[in-house]
Amino acid sequence: MLNKFRYRFFNFWTISTLVLLAFFALALLYPLGSLFLNSFRDGENGFTLQNYITFFTKKYYYTALGHSLTIGIISTLISTGCGVALAYVMHRYNVVLKGALKILFIICLMSPPFIGAYSWILLLGRNGFLTGLLGKIGIQMPTIYGKTGIVLVFSLSLSCYVFRYVTAALQGIDRSLEEAAESLGASKLRRLFTISLPVVFPSISSVMVIVFMRSLADFGTPLLIGEGYKTMPVLIYNAYLSEMGGDAKMAGAVSVVTVLISLGILLVQKAYIARRNYKMSGLRPPLEVKLTGWKRALVSIPCMIWVLVALLPQIAIIVMSFIRTNGPIFVGGFTLNNYREAIKNCGSSIGHSFLYATIAIVFIVIFGIITAYVSVRRRKQGGTLLDTLVMFPYVIPGAVIGICYIVSFNHRPILICGTAIVIVLAYVIRKLPNTVRSSVGVLESIDPSLEEASISLGVPAMKTFFVITARLMLSGVAAGAVLSWISCMNELSSTMLLYSSTTMTMPIAVYTYVCRGNYGIAAALGTIMTASILAALCLVARMTRKTGGII
């Protein structure tokens, strides 16, 4: 009886679940709790609501909230409208170079928004290439700085997320629904708005939340081109690192408001989806419509133009990294000096980015595999709670995570701020959802009878998992891990608050050189990041091509 009790409650999976719950308690719940309590503290009087009263009564603070919501709503509407339209056209019609365009969309998806913001500075900034070129022929371009520029960057980069999600959803539609509507006399336009779009709307609403969260949480883009147009992440950064020495309590209050808004939107979306969700076999997907002549050109040209504009920032960075510069001015002529200076001055930052991202991935893979298995196979033994905790950081802005860790880990008994440990910890907690979701998707397609058969033959449960289940999960784990690694390489918002002079990473170096006006070195560093992302993307595609790939 005692041995049975020990086997049931002290087996590998129970211990693993407890260890993971303890990790999330330390790395997520404790910092968030500390941040929440700190926002109500007053250095002299103890408990106070003054920080929140200040936020909602001073224009400087509530205006930033309005700016963030405005940017988020406008960017979400534009990127969703364009992304859905592009996904529908690319899925239903024989667009010219469809395969190549899909690959280019994925490349746009992998680039961080702040790189796009920096690229548009190079193109349309005050000394930008296109600004000067068009100025010579008398064309005055609108400013890239402020709200217009932020919306432009977000709309272009985030429409690629919408495209990817909606394309996957459209592949699951069974054409029998549209055939039935057609037999009843419904026109193509009516079938689109009454059948196709409503069926995939749960996926559209999900990606709308993702887009809104990313635009609400993005730190680098408004910091680079926002100028006087403050948003919540920038406000958090300024509140903590102000000229007067910083105010962690006010930064905590701003962070709590941001988190509550994010959670509120997520809960509303989940409640809506719970009442409107559809399942289909997808065995008879809609047939591709073969167009010819001007009709094919009519649907192909807009797709090509959008991809070209979305890809223009990456092209600009690569080209301009080889052009001679004199401070912020490109003086012409090609050179490799930007790369020499980047490697000479930022070699440690490049190394830190690769090192920290790689160390984080080791933990992400281990935690991701175990979390995915517990979430799917052991829901009643802590799996549901673990799945909720692992997805919680997905809706928390990186700047908030940075403030949380500063408040919690900048004093004893856990003093790790200013070290590489806190950066790796932030990477793991923020990027783990990518690997978990990818692993869960593969695990749910694996028949549990395979594990049951192995166990019935006397193979221990833990050995069965590592020998059979983990190997079958490998494609999903690999895809999620490389995507997590890419996200770690791109991470700016949390790292901006947590780095020290000895732990600077590539995104920090790019931002620093842009602020200094040294665009040549910044472009070289951006190109190195882009090349790393492309190499990782090719690796993902190669690993997952037998299971449908990522493209």
Outline the structure in words.
This protein is mainly alpha-helical and 551 residues long. It has helices at residues 2-9, 12-38, 50-57, 59-92, 98-110, 113-124, 129-135, 147-170, 175-183, 188-217, 220-225, 232-240, 248-275, 293-320, 337-377, 383-391, 398-409, 420-443, 449-456, 461-472, 474-490, 493-498, 506-516, 519-544; strands at residues 41-42, 46-47, 323-326, 329-334, 410-411, 414-415. It has 24 helices and six strands. A hairpin with a 3-residue loop joins strand 1 and strand 2. The longest helix has 41 residues, at 337-377. The protein is globular and about 75 Å long.
Q: Tell me, briefly, the overall form.
A: globular
SSE pattern: HHEEHHHHHHHHHHHHEEHHHEEHHHHHHH
Q: In angstroms, what separates the terminal alpha carbons?
A: 53 Å
Poorly predicted tracts of residues: none
Mean pLDDT: 79
Report the β-strand fraction as a percent range: under 5%
Q: Helices and strands: which structural class?
A: mainly alpha
Largest sheet: 2 strands, antiparallel
Number of helices: 24
What is the β-strand count?
6
Work out the radius of gyration.
Answer: 25 Å
Spatial strand order of the main sheet: 1-2
Residues in helices, as a percent range: over 70%
